[in-house]
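quick one, two chains, predict together pls
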Amino acid sequence: MSDVNNGISRRSVLKGAAIGGAGLVAGGSLLAGCGKKQVTGDVHFTIRGNLSDAGAKIAIAANDAYTAKTGNKVISQAVNSDDFQNNFVQILQGTPDDAFGWMAGWRTNARADAGLLADVSEQVKALGSSLSAAAIQGATNPSDGKQYIIPTTYYPWGLHYRKSTMQELGLNPESIATWDDLIKLCEATQKKGLVGYALGDKGGWEAMGTFDILNMRLNGYQFHIDLLNGKEQWTDAKVVEVFNHMGELIPFMNKNVLDISWDGMRDLLLQKKCGAMMMGSWFANDFLAKSQADYDDLWIVPFPEINPEHGIDSIDAPLDGISVAANGKNVEGGADLAGFLGSKEGIDAAVAAGDTSIYISSDFDTSTYDAFNKQKLAVLGAAKNIGFFLDRDTRGDFAGPVVGPAIQSFLKNPKDLTKILESTQAQWDALPAL
Amino acid sequence: MKTAAVNKKVRSRRSLSRNDRFTLSAFVGIPTLLQVVFLWGPTLITVVLSFTYWNGINVGDIKWAGFANYKNIFFGSPVFYDALKNNVVWLLWFTFIATPLGILLAYQFDRKIKGHQIYETIFYIPVVLSLAIIGIIWNFMLQPGGFVQGIMGRDIGNAISIWGNYDINSYVIMALASWRHIGYIMLLYLAGLKAFDSSLREASAIDGATEWQTFRKIIFPTMRPVNVIILVITIIDSLRAFDLVYIIYGTSTAWPLLNILAFQNFAGQGISMKGAAYSVIALVLCVVPILVYLRNVFKEDLQ
């Protein structure tokens, strides 16, 4: 609970805001080109992560830009990301900060339905054509057609590897097009003493990325989404096929899959101990934090085609953004800040602070992207269906407590598959109606 | 005799002045009230909620579920039996290995063997650490990339699998928990032994009893009050186990315990009253054997 503006008493913050507000009234006529009424007051913002993280510095820089523009003070606090996610409902029911970085999908929509998140449709509308129809669609709560998150960034899940490692091995992952190619790549990597397919699933969610992509490649996007929403059965032969493919990858995995989490996977790649790794690109910030050379060495390609019927037409690309708490002290201010962070000015401030994310807003000049970001865009562009990742595409009381342990059990004992899938389906059937 | 008792009764009643009575009721009443409000209240609410469907947000959404959550746990959730197994293993390990070891150590140190103070200190030190801290320390040592792995020259890629190796991880966790439990039991038993009348031991030695006979027939039965406490502590500590495993595995149920399942379902990202049902199951398992045991003990004492 560290206040970023430490050293400033609450009173002086309020005073500062009042002065800022007064200054704004004076300069208001100059700024008020869009004719919107001006929002005032302090805004409280939660940063998910540690203050020392690159991400926190980026968030603070963007918030400072908002203060500079509007005179409204932003008071940021950093909260451990896992704690924030686990206690999300309790936090929102208490006295939450006005705005915070959040994730589109079930995690937003279910909380919006419960009245815990504020409607930001107006701000989304104000961003206008800078947001693609698909992005707005992705941020829309299907139950009422409104938006409760302002989408800002996204990232693809794909096969990551180090260019230098592959060069030393004499391999070229960019040329892999089919499942057999992938297996051959893994075999060749393993033969050189490296981990063929790096995976860590101690956290219980990391392997969901592999499950998602295998299901989308084999059975298509629609089947995947239907399965996660109870319209298809986990005992279906198609799902068995997905796990059989995952089973084919097990021999190429590190022998301590259940000992390491996502950061272990990252370190395997960072330390050149593995070939390919299925992961979301967000971890690239850590490569950049290590060194520019490490970052430049990082590359991503789409997961290869398995079933020609579906090609590589789908991908997990979670949409991140800013949500506003319905119980915050300054809901209007929170929404205003969220709108700013999704706009060109907010994005420019974040990029200036060293953000490597790719932005949804079309106002952002993509020609300034570095090579890795351009490649991320290319990977995203190859797909026409976007999944949000398993734990955002299905119910929270199913993803973590049921699917997570099911995949772990499979990685532990692939022979138990039938039993595991039967139990997964039984547990879905036992869920109460929402 | 009779008059003395009557006198005592009168005196004790008289000695409670108005002030005393006020102080007493404050000292007993306030904690009792707090206990009822903050412990019994939530416990009862949890029991009631375990028979409902609810996502923990709007009270109006609570729906009666009957035994559905329990049915789901007993018949639909294989992870429950894994958790139960782990809790039972923990209990058996503590009862038959860790606790007897603690008693054995206490018995040896009580005989003032050379350097016993040093040994006592060594075994006592882990007791000052909470299980959460023990989890952090040993996770740091044993995880891939950790200290022990580093000493053995293992990097992340070829680190020895410990937390994810189901042939050994239970033993490692038991060993870590025992590291603290043994010292704890040793301390309790040592305190009891200090109060032990050494003439009893001498008498048995004169009668020609062996060391083992002395312990089994004289010391152990005399130490009954301490034994009861130790047994209760052992049962409760085994069934309420949570922090050590949570530090190592988080909410992923890679090594499940009843309390981890309760936490995952109750406080995690998808709140469901299945978590309340897990809590109630843990509560019943924890409280019932202890109540039964204590009732027997007190009954015998009365006789």
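Residues 1-35 of chain A have pLDDT under 50 and may be disordered.
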